[in-house]
Amino acid sequence: MNKTLLNIWGAGLSVMLTQGTFVAQGEPTRTVVASPDIRRDATVVAIESALPGVVNINAKSTTKRQGYFYDWWRDAWAPFTQEMPPETSAGSGVIIDEEGYVLTNIHVIEDATEISIKLNDGRVLPAQVVSGTRRSDVALLKIIGQKNDRFNTVRFATDDDLLLGETVIALGNPFGLGGSVSRGILSAKTRRAQAEDGLLDREDWLQTDAAINPGNSGGALINLRGELIGLNVAIYKEGNGIGFAIPIKRVNEAISEIFTPEGAAALWFGARVQAGATGLIVARVEPQSPAGKSGLTKGDIILRVNGQIPRTVFAFNRELLKSGDKEEVNLSIQRGDARQSISLQLVAETTFFNADLIRRKLGCTVQELTPAIALRAGLDSIAGVIITAVDKESPAGAANLGRGMIILGLNNQGINGITSTARFLNNLSRGTAVKASVLAGRPLRRVVVELRVR
Length: 454
Fold this sequence. Notes:
6-stranded antiparallel beta barrel
């Protein structure tokens, strides 16, 4: 056993250290307990928890997208065209599900023809876009890995669980350098754009002085628990230490719209679920939908779906999709003080939201636009429906709609085809006035007509 004798002159005391034991002559033996590493503070622990779930995203576009018909022409006449040099962009993402679903900003991957994900462990895997919207600037990707691959995830914070001035950490891929962290405080919880300055084009962003640089977009803004409180999105280039993130509340809302049975697989569930302080809460229910017919009502708290406890809105919708339209979905809910069990079955949207519903509501028969029809009409997309017949004594007849006219939108909202048109009309009660944006005449010109839904 190694022993070291230390003499402290002037104190008249001799001590001997024996493998961490403090011994003083004439004194009882005392054990010295090593203090914890002061470097491993709450910030370090939070980063260690969350960083494995933050990824680098490389998006490559081989051709600059110019619209549907540019792409159709390019694809049809590829032997006679010259591909543009590849364009690449770097961004960040957050894994929210162990099966490899990743959140990022839509502007990180928009128009990408090839997406790769670099994980925290160094692996690089391809990914594909599941869904996303420009309005929310949130996109959902899916990593394409092996069948049994499981990925580290980042936990979500509770909506609105924010403290002004609390320490926050930005994780991401600034300038394509790889996993990087920066620390700051939460400077504002609901930063809103002012009409006169136009600094932001969205409401309720989080503001932080944690360094957020190009490439951080889509990365995680976390609290000291390692929980995701926001999705890094932008910096104010004229400011110093001013960065912004989409709050987790808005992220949850975006997920509830972009990753649903309707959006992901054209299956009708008919309810929207949102994260709340007490769990997942039913926010709205369509009366004639599978959810509505099952007895599910606004305010119900979701406890289990098919025996699984859904921790997030995403996990809830994923469980619904697993059942498809062939198997029943079993829900355990809490309504007031009582717990109940509910069963329902998803159905294909087209069995209800179809041309027959449009005819019942408006009195006209429609079909989807084809690329050829849209090209003749001078349209750059196939969004909308074309009228093929009009019933007498109908709202469409009263508005002088006729064969060959194209409905592009209703009440200033664009329509993507028959399903979205029928869904819009289904939510309107009899006698409701609707303003339809229509292409009519020769040559076709855009006009607005008013219809009364029947």
